[in-house]
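Holo prediction — alpha-D-galactopyranose.
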Amino acid sequence: MNLKELAAHVAAEFQKKYGHPPRWIVAAPGRVNVIGEHTDYNDGFVLPMAIERYAVMAADSSSLSSSPSFSIYDTHFKEGATIDVSIPVTKGQPKWSNYIRGVIAGFQNRGQKIPALDVAFMSTVPLGGGLSSSAALEVCTATLIEAATGRNIDPVEKVLLAQKAEHDFAGMPCGIMDQFISALGREGHLLLLDCRSCQTELVPMNDPSVTILIINTNVKHELTGSEWPTRRRQSEAAAKALGVPSLRDATSETLERAKEKMDEVIFRRARHVIGEIERTVHAARDIRASDWISAGRLMYASHASLRDDYEVSCKELDTVVEIAGAIGHKGGVYGCRMTGGGFGGCAVALVKTDAVDAITKKIAADYKIKTGIEAAIFSSRPASGATIIKG
Ligand code: GLA
């Protein structure tokens, strides 16, 4: 379903549920990170793009004037949540409503009165696939509140508000990348984001001869477990041992010099982050210059580093990357790597457009043979960030 069809579908579901057409329709995309993994919370660079998979909300002022509630209905899972917005919003049930609750609380903390709304929503961002389905939901909620109140907030503040919702209401101490790209992605572009200054540079990615392929291992990733926060703590410990505010301020040379003073695991974690920040800046340069071979090489190097030094890959992700590597340039694959937090989820590949079908078939078949699992593979052009479709 493209965005137009999805919006029409959610509007029709709204009509079915509430008996009249919606006044507002908003959308926010998921994302795939091309390179720059586990660098955002180290003040480094990331290079994500918004994908053509979205959370969409259709809404109108609540028909029940007596109840000051934000009533939200998930049209796919056929489940609703009612959030009383006349009091400070706290965590609650169902679990997914916390992404929405967290954003509402963020607006309340800014002194914003939240209108009572009836909402229908649906998301086509795969859940647990490492494509930021939660950031899409958070940014979509923030965009809906902007539309319904007629008040836009500063874009970076909006991103920070959505990130805080993830920290405080979902218990995931994520970096800034996911909410940033969901809010501020631009069609036809990757976004080179400096996570220290929040400055961005658009990197055009509209050469029709290359395509971004997303390969979902269908192994669910769960980032609220202990591994992801542990990586964040280890990065911070490495920066401390190096005497710098964050690993952004360290270099391969300063790290090598401090090697003897550091725990071996902490050393490898830092080596990944420092190398990945450099690779990300180089990859952005390569993509600008349409040097796909060099960009692809950096993607493979990123994967190896995430697998061996940062240890956030898994057998299935490694299998996808090996299959892609075996297809090679001749078969149309420039590069491939795990994307997102890791421990399952998706791989991203940079491939020749005219070989997409053959590559898709080959990866799906070999992956099934080697793991017994069906992968879900799709391509996406770089999409636009959050949008108000109606209202
Ligand atoms: C998750 C987090 C992001 C980022 C990635 C790893 O997706 O939400 O902030 O840290 O992991 O790059």
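READOUT: The first strand starts at residue 24 and ends at 35.
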